Amino acid sequence: MDQQLSQQSDGGTAHGVGKGAIEELVWGELRKCFDPEIPLNIVDLGLVYGVAVRGGQANIKMTLTSPGCHLGGQIAGSVQDRVLSLDAIEEANVELVWDPPWHQSMISADGRKTLGLDTA
Length: 120
What we know:
The chain is of the alpha+beta class.
């Protein structure tokens, strides 16, 4: 799903850096964001559904482990702060979505190993 939203981006650049490079920087910042209750970054946890960069604007579509997660605002705020720390990004929008609902199967292979869920 990571590429789904990325493919919707236009070909613009910001601050002389190509769109693809900026998207990679955004993904890098997202890997620094953690669910406070789970020792895994939100990308490997499977919470980020997509990133779109248009000029200096980044739009992030993500979910939480459950709709009732009381830390949703904190996680979304951390995502926005991290992405706004990039020089090429002037605006960061975080959209929380519930479809598809998150499930443990969305955790990356590396994340499963980190959490001890890998049965191999």
